[in-house]
Amino acid sequence: MKTALISVYKKEGIVDFVKELTELGWSIVSTGGTYKHLLDNGIDVTDITEITKFPEILDGRVKTLHPKVYGGILYRRDVEEHSKTIKEQNIDSIDMVVNTLYPFEETINDINSTHEQLIEKIDIGGPSMIRAAAKNYKDVIVVTSISDYDFVLKELKEKGDLSLENKRILAGKAFGVTAQYDALISNYFNNQNKLDFPENITFTYRLKQSLRYGENPHQNAAYYEKIYEAPKEKGEIIQLHGKELSYNNLNDLYGAVKMVKEFEEPTAVAVKHNNPCGIATGENIYEAFKKAFEADEVSIFGGIISLNRKVDVKTANLLSQIFLEIVVAPEYDNEAFNILSKKKNIRILQIENLNTMELVKQETKDVLHGVLLQDRDNKLLRDKLEFVTNRKPTDEELEELLFAWKAVKYVNSNGVVISKNKQTLAIGQGEVRRHWAVEKAVKRSIKDLKGAVLASDGFFFGDTVEELNKAGVKAIIQPGGSVKDSEVIELANKYDIAVVFTGMRHFKH
After folding, report:
1. Would you say which domain of life the source belongs to (predicted)?
2. Are the C-beta atoms of residues 410 and 259 closer than 8 Å to each other?
3. pLDDT value of residue 491
4. Catalytic site residue from 19, 173, 241, 273
5. Given this model, what pLDDT does residue 245 score?
6. Would residue 273 show up in a list of annotated catalytic residues for this protein?
7. Most buried in the list 66, 77, 321, 466, measured by CB within 10 Å?
8. What CA dihedral angle connects 14, 15, 20 and 21, to 10 degrees?
9. Which of the 8 DSSP states describes residue 57?
10. Is 369 designated active site?
11. CB 224 within 8 A of CB 207
């Protein structure tokens, strides 16, 4: 007769699972609350203390940590010396371990949980049993998910045992469970200890959605979601309409949300390939979107629109005239939603707390043999701007410069933004020479640039000032810090262009 050790926090489905095990001839050993639950449901079950001859102690903190348990799990059935030792020590075989861990994840995601409650939800015996069974997977079946109950029973009924391949699959899943569990605990302590860059770090995510493909059809892809977010970072994405999001949708969506959150006024952002193609603010969300649309009526086709105010009927009517992949906003009027949802292919997303949720503190990027971790670019300016030319910007120009400076933060380097009336008129991005980015922006501008302003994510040289003067740009905001700053300032004075140095750059690679 084979023996299964059952110790589960989540009791769903366990009674039916164990009943079928007993019908297949398995004997059952259990612990604490699980033992009582099975006993109350009429199952013949042995308390673990009858095996260990040692009571549960320390409020249940110690119950399975015993040689009679781990010897029964870990001994190799094909090693004669192991079998001899087990017999000498009067240890019974344990051939299956079924365990679901204390709910540390649920507890940490409950904003009302205290530190003491979290500590008590750190499982010790569970991960140890799981790891022991997974290590000895050739001889022991390890089950860590309710979703595997039916699969295990089916295999046992049809074949009397699980294949070695399936045992190995369950073992891999088990180690994934304990790794994720420990990573969550480790990250919690790192946060408690205010360690932004600890010596060791492990990121943990759970599969949210398998994707049709990645950036291109020949690339496989999946979407994994965070297991834990700080309360201020929580912002549930509710999909109200449309087909599943793609890899590129999800990537661009993040960019669109980051951009629109930079602005407090009613703002609309149009994104294509994770670059803005139109950003504008207005007295209301309709005016903001109309200006963003007019900034580049061609590139917006098939793009993503993020809005930081409720979508009304007037705005929905304009949105519906364009082919868009996604619209995301905090809220929609009922009639506005009805208008948009008539379009079959549009994805309508809602993030109710879009304006109040905080973005993640740190961001990662894959590199050769590793990953880069950095603080998110969450600052706009240093404490003080430096007005370096004879002509200082007017109050209106300074307000416009700050609008453009916010926009250029999200343009791939080398990047520039030309704007007027809080509407991007031209965007130059991703060039290896900044002058080329400026040339591109000037050439592609939708309107006369006379009186417009320019923001640059990095410093530039005299040839750029010459180009901007020809275009009619009257004010510039840039980091400064070049050995040729004096040349730039001299030319700007010559052309009566106001230049503001920020003392900080916003490269985005």
Report:
1. Bacteria
2. yes
3. 94
4. 273
5. 92
6. yes
7. 66
8. 60
9. B
10. no
11. yes
